[in-house]
Amino acid sequence: MVFIDNDIKIKTVIVLKNVLLPWAKYRFRFRPFVFQQDSAPAHRARLSGFINAQECSSNSLDLNPMNYSVWSLLESKACSKQHHSIDSLKRNLLRVWEEIPLKYLRAKVDAFPVRLRAVPEHVEGVSRFTLSMCNGSI
């Protein structure tokens, strides 16, 4: 876990090219995939703007393992007591992050494709196009 100060500018293209793309090529192994960022201002790269934010419902399915599993675990453990400073919160988040077994994180990431494939079977009105455009690739 890394904390980044508000005034730091991250070179999105460098991160996408040197980190995300190699990971995605390894993970999807020549299968097509769609990269979509959420609508948080800090997460919007200019180069992924080919998908209009209105095309994906604000209450679309959230299948990201960080959102449905890891963040909630961090929050429940690190925020079980009130913090009186940002530094206290950061220290506690780091402590809890270090306690999460790597096996747990790998299992959540490995389950992601299975979760994606299961959506059309369980959610009425979800098309393959909508799923791939709004949540990633199948």
Automatic annotation (TrEMBL):
This is TCB2. GO terms for molecular function: nucleic acid binding. The lineage of its organism: Eukaryota, Metazoa, Ecdysozoa, Nematoda, Chromadorea. It comes from the Eukaryota. InterPro entries: RNaseH_sf (IPR036397). It comes from Haemonchus placei (Barber's pole worm).
